## 1
Amino acid sequence: MEKYILGCDIGTSGTKAVLFTLGGKPVASATFEYPLYQEQNGYAEQDPDDWVHATCDAIAAVIKKSGVSASSILSLGLSGQMHGLVMLDENDRPLRRAIIWCDQRTGAEAEEMTRILTREKLIAITANPAITGFTAAKILWVKNHEPEIFAKTKKILLPKDYVRFALTGEYLSDYSDASGMQLMDVPNRCWSKEVTSALGIDMALLPTLVESSDVAGRIHEKAASLCGLLPGTPVAGSAGDQAASAVGSGIVRPGVISATIGTSGVVFAYADKPAIDPKGRVHTLCHAVRGAWHIMGVTQGAGLSLKWFRDQFCKDEINVAASLGVDPYVLMDKEAEKSPIGADGLLFLPYFMGERTPHLDPDCRGVFFGLTSTHEKRDLLRSVMEGVSYSLADCYDIIRELGFDASEVRAAGGGGRSLLWRQMLSDMFSSPVTTTNSSEAGALGAALLGAVAAGAYANVPEAADATILTKDRLDPDPEAAAYYKRGHALYQRLYTSLKDDYKALAELRK
């Protein structure tokens, strides 16, 4: 009987379950969406139980759609949005909505962390300066603003770990996801007593740490009845979404870098040992590969920026796409292609949710610069795509500065399916850009971690080598690359020029 592996990608807009053959070929997929709550400027929350229901529904739908017997599914792996804060009471129920990765309310708490521990010590221990989007600052925000909830908290989990808890009853996290909480000693791959003690966070609140490819629980009877998997099916330690996507793109050894355009945008490099940027511009975290780390530059509003443009200005494209049975982004790509390189002198800063790399500024906001009465919708559309690409070029340049170069960049995420967007990346990175044989890098990476946990492969690199092939190589266009080099310099100056004005705007909005 043929065996299958299952991966679930628990994202910001929804959860996608994908069933794969052991060789990595997708068999069936299903996605269930859930709301994002933004009750104030800079806030972003979700209901943790929405993730659980969506995961169970997606798994059940995939099993039904595929016709595959649950007994032939070897394992489940999870990929999860990182940094979210789930606080459970003594009855294992969420005390409040989860504060998720893109929430920017914690500026004062990040400053508090720096004051208590110093920027230098935070970078040395957690491999990052205090970051508003990371979990530690969120915990402090609840401690400072909702002390009654903090006092009732008996366990703190990350999004995908809450889903696994609901499926298995285990309080666990993996090193890759947990290292984004800013409570770990990242070089030594353990919780930091010094950091937790200084911040007044009891280590008993934190889950036990495991490797991403370890067995981290088994499906219990109640979960089995909801999702259709057999009781006892192993669930892997799994990974944060970026580490899982990197595994699903084959970023499991030095020499290849990935660029993922999802809701956020990420440039990701494998590291055999922890390499920390002393300026704190990029993140160093643990990888989903046993005993490895990664360097990661993040732009907050990548695919989010294009989705905003689609939802606000592309109703016609959405309606036409529905009548043709295609994705609206396909039509938007064709429209953007009609605009010249540089969008006729229009620049876009994708700072809808503040920014992480390289500015680490929760107050910066989106900007169209150079707008004239001659610009058309296609120019604005192209400028959004170019602005996101410039932001990823910021990340790539810093990673190369730290000594991590690559023979190729592998594009992933929804934006990675766009030929136009991939060409922009190739031109701005001055590097070949390829895709892989899987368009579901996050779910595939999660599934491969499950396959290793179940013993189907000896380790993560072996699993990646057996399933992942590259294709569709794009090379830089010299003329476009020369233009974008000049455009990138102007793009970078705009943030510097506006930095103080962003602070003034934040004060004005209070």
Note: The first strand starts at residue 4 and ends at 10.
## 2
Amino acid sequence: MRHKRYLCNMFAFGMAACLVVSTVNRILIPKCYYDDSWPTTSTYQGFYQMEKDSVDVLFLGSSCAAAGLNPQEFYDSYGIRSYNLGCEGQSLLTSYYWLEEALRFQSPKVVVLEVFFTFLYNRDEPLNTAESSTRKAFDYMRWSPVKWEAVHDICNYDKKQTLGSYYFPNIRYHTRWKELEENDFISGEMAEHYELKGYAPLAQRRGNDGYVPLSPADSSDRAGMAPLMREYLDRIVMLCRENGISLILTKMPDTDCNVSKYNTMSDYAQEQGIPYWDFNEESLYRASGFVHMEDMNDDWHVNLWGGGRENFALYR
């Protein structure tokens, strides 16, 4: 009897310890809800609240995708049910694993991938993006073999990151107790606000009056893709094929565009037999009605007036 009582006490203690650690982790993990410019937490918590197999189109990519692809516009214009899984600083590694995760719950017919991070963006980071951006994307992914594989890949490529800090986020965020806010304690309530389905509307009109759309005939140069990003782009293409999903590559207008990048992506898309819609390319830019000064929040992000102008091409 004594041994049984001892085991029961140990089990109860273990369960209580797990509950405490889980609660502390949930409170300490940073949160970005609809009251933030980039509501990453709302994006991912909201995705899990979508009814199974209720999404026809998935958007993936960096903040360019989050700000430029509005699911409500697609529904209002064409009745297409979509969800935007883009987020600030989303590398193609992150895009790949969130696509894998999404396929556990949804069966999209189309995936639209914004390709900003295909090329070298942050040469000082092994994953081509800031560690904080990677954390924001994976902190709210549910644990499954998908997340397990993702965090192992992350820590394999980026030796500054550790598996323990993903399994126990309090290791990474233990100093956040000094800056806790109300949102940290009402995350369940805040998670209910996902009406924008991942879209991050930006409300400034600060385009660049020096912006000039691309004319591909101007150059035959090709830019080199970041090797790791090319690897995960290939994996995204393969994953879509394996699941019978039509993949569309796209690029939102930005001042970082150039003909060599456009040519590289066009060549890749042609080799893979998939469409590539670059809204920096002059004919598409003009046809979509973009006006950089009016439709851009800044040099890289479409504002809420510009969001949706790309609908006609992506739908076509």
Note: The first strand starts at residue 57 and ends at 60.
## 3
Amino acid sequence: MQSYGRFAAIYDRLMNDVDRKAWGDYVLKLLGEGRKTVVDCACGTGELTLRLAAEGYSLIGQDLSEEMLRVASEKARRARLNIPFIRQDMRKLSLHKRVDAIVSACDGVNYLASRQALSDFAASAYAALKPGGILLFDISSRYKLSTVLGNNTFALDEGDSAYIWQNVYDGESRLIRMDLTFFVQDEETGRYDRFPETHIQRAHSEREVRAALENAGFTNIEVYEAFTMDAPKDTTERLQFAALKGE
């Protein structure tokens, strides 16, 4: 599993084009009424975590990256939100008590790079939920990772930061290797610091995800084209899953 390094410090700047409010509103809609204790798995810099906490939910933020958790904790402190952030593997959640909901947004589950890892996460989430609890997560679809991103190169220039993003997709393993080179301007000297990051994601199919959830014990499994309540299409780039733990 990927543990973000120096990327954590510039992650939010490079995600400026993502409508975080709309994403948070969508998750709030899916959470429904009466669920108040939430774990945000692979919470990253805590954008979703803070948005849910600001709505009155009791949050725990979980991530494997110390750097991401450090950024998230500082953002929560500045917002005067009391949110515990814990460094754990999402495949092995260990909580003091079970919660009403577990969420994961923006590809956290894609970083589970095997079918076994996906199954382990589903089982861990099931055990961590109260009866009636809900698991919500999205993934970049196999179509997106294999066709839109796979074997392509992208670049972004934000002035004080930029990256070159090169991807290689392997159809047999369903893994995509993302090699990123970042250039970040030093505020004092004006010079650009260059550093690399490599990320590995797996293109889980809808069928694989459903099977992992069913095997873990989840029921009422729904899948949508992300940010809608519509059924996904062959060209849908992001899938949203919702699954319930029985009463």
Note: The chain has a mean pLDDT of 93.
## 4
Amino acid sequence: MQIHYLSEKNSVLNHFLGQIRNINVQKDSMRFRRNIERIGEIMAYELSKVLDYKDIEIQTPLGIKKTTEIQNSLVLCSILRAGLPMHFGLLNYFDKAENGFISAYRHHTNQEDSFDIVVEYQAVADIKDKILIVADPMLATGQSIVAVFNKLMEKGSPKEIHIAVIIATPEGIAYLKKHLPKNCHLWIAALDEKLNEKKYIIPGLGDAGDLAYGTKL
């Protein structure tokens, strides 16, 4: 797996990462969603550097200009519901991409900390021979992304797979390395310290879905 760490150098990305973690800024859910969207835009820009391009000519009012445009067919697939603001950020840059949405959540079978990942709703474009970008803000254990990946592969094999996450843990990265194909790309905005005993990211930011859309039952 090829891993791309995006926050190793100072940039406006780190500014937005700081805001989505800040408990005082988090009180404004609209601002939280917008910052997640901005991070998605930055990640789309970085990811665009490894795509394929073709030469084209553009007619301007005063002449012809040679340039390039993205050659690949893209499918953006976000994990509901936390992935929605990130999806919009990616789509702002990859505006011709097809789209997909899939749900995955932790189902606790008892009062202990163990859980299963349940994948239910899905509405996904044809991914066969296309560039598949899976977006999920938080990479904790990695089980949700692997479960979603396995479900998506039932629909066909994409040409290339990119996983875009905002905050990741070493444990989650190790899990993806073990269960996903070696030719996958993993894009990480920030690498955090660890998982706690309940499998939440430390220091993390809390529940991204709740912060964006309100607490759930």
Note: The longest strand covers residues 98-107.
